[in-house]
Every structure is written in C-alpha cells, then in structure tokens.
Amino acid sequence: MEEAPRAHRSLRYVVLATLLLLVGQYLLGIWTSAYAPASFTTSTSYPPLGWHYNLGFAVFFLSLVAVVLAALTRELRLVAPALALIVSVVLAGVFGRVYVASTPNNPLDSFAMGVMFLVAFGSAASLAFSLRSRSQRTSPPVPARASSGPAT
C-alpha cells in the first residue's frame, strides 16, 4: 500500500516538470516560427529547431513516466489525463515532424501541432489539479473535542 502514496508524490514532481518543459517547448516553437528560415527542412542545422526536437523528446519521456506513475495509483482520474497527455504529445510530435518534412510547409500541420500542444498542456494541468485536490482532500482528520455541556 506504500506504493500508491509514493507514486502520487513522484507523479506530482513529474507533472510539474512536464508543465515547465511544455512552456519551454511553446516558447521555442514561437522562436522557431518567428526567426527560422522561410521554409523548414528536416535538418537540425537551425539550433532552436534542434532544441525544440530535444525538448519534445524530454516531454515524451516525462509523459511516459507520468502514465506509469498514474497507473501505479490505479485511480482513473489520474490515469485518463496521463493517457491524454502522452497521446497528445505523440500526435504533436508527429504533426510537427510532418510540418518540418513537407515543402512548402503545410499550415494545417502547424495548426494540428498547436492544437495537440494545447491538449497536452490541458491534460498536464488537469493532472496537476487532480493531484492537488487529492492532497487537500486526504489531510488527516482533526479529532473532535468531546463537550460535556455549555462552555463557561
């Protein structure tokens, strides 16, 4: 039974790290879109695009860890957003790869990548909120004082 509380605690840290990396991923995506050459290629000769790829792999890895930790808790309210997180991260990566690989770059792939980012961020935020509300709900109860009559 000790495994579930440890999984909750670890999941909380993993979700926080995932949210921070997703913010970094978003900022790098903006930077790459604003300052990249007119047409992307699959080459990572543009350093921010390479960093964007690497952060994507890190977000995928943390999402995978989040799914495993959520599964260890055996709580559907944690497993469902964790699964939505990893699926949306994978789809964002696929759409991003297709966007970079196509010439000219298809704006629908960019749009789909952005939507999947929003789903991933929402899933991670939902997971963080579920973990936070659980920690508030499972506080140890305060023992009630027995009263023997009116207080004087």
Question: How does this model look, in words?
Answer:
The chain has 152 residues and is mostly helical. The chain has one domain (3-137): A middle domain of Talin 1 (Up-down Bundle), CATH 1.20.1420. It is 77% helix and 0% strand. The model has no long low-confidence stretch (mean pLDDT 84).
Features:
single chain, 152 residues, mainly alpha, A middle domain of Talin 1, 4 helices, 77% helix
Short account of what is shown:
The chain is an all-alpha fold. Helices cover 77% and strands 0% of the residues. It has a single domain (3-137), classed as A middle domain of Talin 1, CATH 1.20.1420.
On the 0 to 100 scale, the average pLDDT is 84
Q: From N to C, what is the helix and strand string?
A: HHHH
Distance between the termini: 46 Å
Instruction: Count up the domains.
Output: 1
What radius of gyration results from the CA coordinates?
21 Å
Shape: elongated
SSE arrangement:
Layout: H1 3-35, H2 47-73, H3 76-101, H4 107-137
Helix pairs in contact: 1-2, 1-4, 2-3, 3-4
